[in-house]
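Reply to dn_fold:

You asked what the input looked like. This is it:
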Amino acid sequence: MILERDSLLQKRYRIIENLGQGGMGSIYRAVDENLGVEVAVKENLFTTEEYARQFRLEAVILANLRHPNLPRVSDHFVIAGEGQYLIMDYIEGEDLRQRMERVGLLPEDEVIQVGAAMCDALEYLHSRKPPVLHRDIKPGNVKVSPDGHIYLVDFGLAKIIQGNQATTTGARAMTPGYSPPEQYGTARTDARTDIYSLGATLYAALTGVIPEDGLARAMDNAELTPLRKRNPEVARRLAAAIEKAMEVDPGDRFQTADAFKLALLNAKSKTQQLTGTYTISPPPPDAERPADSPLKAAVLTHSIPLEEQAFVSPRKKQMQRTTRMIRTIGGGALAFLVTAFLFILFLAPQLLPASARSYFPFLPTIPEALSTSTNLPTETDVPLVQETPTLPESPTLEATAIAEVIVDATQTAASALTQTLAPTPIGADYLQIAYASTRTGVSQIYLTNLLTDEALPITNMPGGACQPSWAPDGSKLVFTSPCGIKKDNYSESSLFIIDADGSNLIPLSTASIPGGDFEPAWSPDGKYIAFTSLRDGYMQIYSYNLASSSITRLVETPLNKPARQASWSPDGKTIIFAYQRVDSYELWTMSAFGLDEKAFLQSGDLLSNNSPIFSPDGKYILFSQANTKDAKLPDLYFVKLSDPSAPLKVSLGVNSISDVHYSPDGNWLAYEAGGERGYHVYYSTPSGGNQARITQDVFSDDFDPAWRPILK
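and this is what came back:
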């Protein structure tokens, strides 16, 4: 829940404005009415008792931090059912992101001063007992005060290292481009994690571009562009120091913040003698800035930050190129058609069909128009009796047909252009994924936009919700509830339909049947929902008719031989599913009405195949395969529909892959990966390129991804 302006928090902190908002909470500017000073309020929306206990422990540690480059944490509290709050000094001025927007690329000397100040702050944090990691260093979290003093702000994600264990206030954040590879997975993070993020921040300040993502680099899907290739004016020693801080292997980076600081100061003779407090030129006074500058508007509306706008992913670049090409071709075609139509309208109206001429009363009649340019006979030339009338030798019929085509094409092109220029509906950019998450203690369904990283809750079911499946038009989805955590099956569950904005919740009639209904899959024509049910005591596949609310059993296997995980072909004619005919699951197919059941991919007792899906072109099947004789997690395989004899393994660089889902254009995959330590949602190209993790909370399970179709 967003705190309203002028509301009073904890009977003490008066909210002035919301400075920023994300999936984990918000940051507010407020006034401490007891002391009469401005403060920053950091909110974390995690309300379980375990989170609250851990938060209080770590907040006490943060409150004892004292360093000239760090804001002071002055208060902390938990409001039951609402969230956790840190109260910190509010630092006036601008952050590094805003400074980059104001002046462009930052001068080398300024960047060295900023880096040295941040290294001082990090060395202090890392040397505490226990050590403290910041874990979210980026331009937006480096603040420059009105006197030019430099601060490292936002401790809502700090990690306290105690012995061999690490605890975290709030949730774990990965900011693509600024986070090292080890921060994405289960690898241990340490002081070198912050050193990498600081290096990436200085790289962005000198180039205006976010560096290539650390995880993509670790998987050999990307290489770091040399800093001097983006900005040849940067000193070689400075570029080398920053690139060393950003090495993929932590062992190749600077091992301490002091070592990084020394390398920065030694990069130029002018900065070698700098010691003590590091400052840079202060931002201009507020009075000198436009009151409604784009910077302020971006903060107040929570738009994409500057550093994120500077980086354009390969996917987005391709989409932009496609959009420009379509607009160019469409605009050229429209201009040609309009020109042709105007030419005919004013210079050759006789070419227009009668149906079109009726809309233009100012045009002359056909006889008058044609008599000036054709050899049509006049009244005196027409015989009184004419047994076989003949058409005049003129281009009238052919030209009329051409004109009709031009008019129709013009109207069609104009209509298409109007649709192109209309506001793009949510979901039309292929960039939204729904998934289930236990971040609030019980699983609910969230919708994340991959460009903004904003996670919006869709459901608020008392017993939880999971397994979302989109309607083909992208306007609503069907899901399973109750569904408190990730499990293999859900007894006592039912199916519900809800609009994408979380409104208009509708329980299906399956709710009245005991046994448990789950694993819904919406048909491509939007008329049916296939699902798995325990209503007969073991898992079987049924179909729900949305028009009649009737339920049909699609497959009937021998007693206690489960059939489940139905997936539709793109044309809606075939369903592929997992069938436990032997000790492990095999893949079978049947028609949309439950006919023509046959084995597609048999696996024997050693291998178990499940979670099959069709590729958007219907030519391939992707599925997860696990070995039933060991504890290995499932891997992803694909096989041709026309030749299921030779499945091939797909390596995407994560531990286990299941619940794979294609993007509408077929160029991307979303999937869950994990195991006993938790599940997370990733997306990448089908070959594993440009992989990123879209869910950040290290303490929750995130699973069941479903890519939103394009709204129609």
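Residues 432-707 form a domain with the Neuraminidase fold (CATH 2.120.10.30).
Hope that clears it up.
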